[in-house]
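User: I'm putting together notes for a lab meeting next week and I want to include a structural view of one of the chains we've been expressing. I don't have a solved structure, so I'd like a prediction I can at least talk through. The sequence is below, exactly as it appears in our construct file.
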Amino acid sequence: MAVVVGYVPTKEGEAALRRAAAEAAVRQTPLVVLDSAHAAGEDQADDARAQLAALADQEVSYEVRTIGPSDDATDELLRIAEDESADLLVIGLRRRSPVGKLILGANAQRILLDAACPVLAVKPSE
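Assistant: Thanks for the context. Below is the predicted structure for the 126-residue chain, given as structure tokens.
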């Protein structure tokens, strides 16, 4: 059992990471972080390292996994959640306009529909 989170160094990814760490602490389960920033390039990888280093200050055990540039982050996130028998899967969502809310991003929609565990979608605070 674990809490699994998909992470990229954006305000959405940071919000998801913070909430996932809090959920793992409350549930007293490990946190598994899928870091897809390293696949996006070195600039994002540096930002990700700083954010992930902040996990050391939390009262939660965690593991960071990375994906390769040719791997599909959504497939990998769903696989990890299944392999870990995740209690919860946490993802970050962008704020959208009223019209944009009618259309959910393809990856988020796939995660919500295909995940075998509950999914928590987190928006960044203003």
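A couple of points you could mention at the meeting. Strands lie at 3-7, 31-35, 62-66, 88-92, 119-122. The helical segments are 11-27, 37-40, 42-53, 73-83, 106-114.

User: Perfect, that's what I needed.
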